[in-house]
Amino acid sequence: MGSLRTQVGIIGAGPSGLALAQLLQLAGVDSVVLERRSRDYVLGRVRAGVIEQGTVEILRRAGVARRLEREGLIHHGVEIAAGERCHRIDFTAQSGSVTVYGQTELTKDLMDARDAGGAPPVFEVDGVVLEDIDRERPRLRYTRGGKANVLECDFIAGCDGFHGVSRKAIPAAVLKTHERVYPFGWLGVLAEAPPVSSELIYLSHERGFALCSMRSATRSRCYLQCELDTNIGDWSDERFWDELASRLPAELAGRVVRAPTIEKSVAPLRSFVAEPLRYGRLFLAGDAAHIVPPTGAKGLNLAIRDVDQLAAALVAHYAERRDDLLDAYSASALRRIWRAERFSAWLTSVLHRYPGRTSFDRGMQLAELDHLVSSAVARAAFVEAYTGF
Ligand SMILES: Cc1cc2nc3c(=O)[nH]c(=O)nc-3n(C[C@H](O)[C@H](O)[C@H](O)COP(=O)(O)OP(=O)(O)OC[C@H]3O[C@@H](n4cnc5c(N)ncnc54)[C@H](O)[C@@H]3O)c2cc1C
After folding, report:
1. 3-state secondary structure of 293
2. Per-residue pLDDT tens digits for 140-173
């Protein structure tokens, strides 16, 4: 059996696990990242793309923002469309902005930094088991290439996403979960095509929500609200672009470039919060701790903010022998998380078509959107939440 020792054992090489390892290494704290999947699989995942200013600042501090700042697209507004009406919400009055940069690219930057730091993740580990998390010396057991291994740690960071093992290691009597599962999903495509507009367009249409987003000036990322049991095989590229154009105001519909898609997937929508985020020497961060529907583009941003806070608390433990930040982590992260949950659930509720939606419900949605685009106070609250609190 192989035996290793580190200060912080990190489960998961998604953005939260990789960013935590990077922040810790810069402060002189050792960690080992264990990842179930292969390096190519992790690098190939297509997911989020809207990065808040505060997240960019954390990534800059972590030394991984150089390419993001060179290649990312800075946006100072979004468009909200309903029927034939389209309104721009301007971020500049509040000095707000977001950067459009694919999670795939960010993952590559974080992975390159791990390689350059001489501490790449341990890929393709199986059967990770957390032991003694409520004692001084917790352990992670796992197998790799058929060989049993043990990683002894001071702390464990559960950065293993919604379906990971770390949250499940917290006793059921301690862990509380709060969940809303939405009765629809998003059918998403990626295509080598210029975006419909230079900014994101969020659409509330009688036929359902749609989003015209992008990953670069030549690569579109578009979504359609769809049934949860949608079969991707039923959606030819032509059908997707036709449906997207039918939900856009006529003037914008003519700008849809019907390029072949290079990725197509269906994602369910969920709101989820686990608490507490700490049990003994285990700390949860990122999607292991919470899920937001992607409407507000908060998932990746929350994950990076979690690990920034957790890294600071762990560094204070080692460098200053202070544990107050570790003790405060769960309550203070949860407060930030619930606010992002509120915004994401609200935006989802006003933009999507719900089964059984009545004409009154639709009237309420349109009134919410009208209030949002016509009230300076409502716009300011939206900008504050969308660009990062
Ligand atoms: C299809 C999809 C689309 C999304 N779109 C958006 C979007 O548009 N905007 C937005 O802000 N957010 C979006 N998100 C959310 C965003 O991608 C996540 O919030 C972000 O990836 C969270 O990072 P994480 O590192 O916490 O979790 P993850 O990225 O899920 O990483 C967890 C890692 O842990 C590994 N792992 C899991 N179990 C184990 C185990 N037992 N042992 C070892 N390793 C394990 C996984 O393989 C994975 O690499 C989307 C998510 C999905 C799934």
Report:
1. coil
2. 999 999 999 999 999 999 999 999 999 999 999 9
Q: Is the CB of 299 under 6 A from ligand 1?
A: yes
> Whose structure tokens read 């987003």?
213
Residues 6+ apart with CB under 8 A from 381: none
First to last CA, the chain: 47
Is the distance from CB of 166 to CB of 130 less than 8 angstroms? yes
Contact 156, 138 (CB under 8 A): yes
194 is catalytic: no
DSSP 234: G
Tokens of residue 87, six digits: 């309104």
Q: Please check whether residue 293 is in contact with residue 270, taking contact to mean a CB–CB distance below 8 angstroms.
A: yes
Question: pLDDT tens, 256-315?
Answer: 999 999 999 999 999 999 999 999 999 999 999 999 999 999 999 999 999 999 999 999
Cβ pair 85, 201 in contact under 8 A = no
Catalytic residue among 15, 75, 120, 293: 75
Measured from the Cα of 165, ligand 1's closest atom is 41
Ligand 1 contacts CB of residue 14 (under 6 A): yes
Distance 305 CA to ligand 1 centre (A): 15
* Measured CA distances, 310 to 103, 180, 285, 333, 335 (Å): 21, 26, 8, 9, 14
Determine if ligand 1 sits within 6 Å of the CB of residue 161: yes
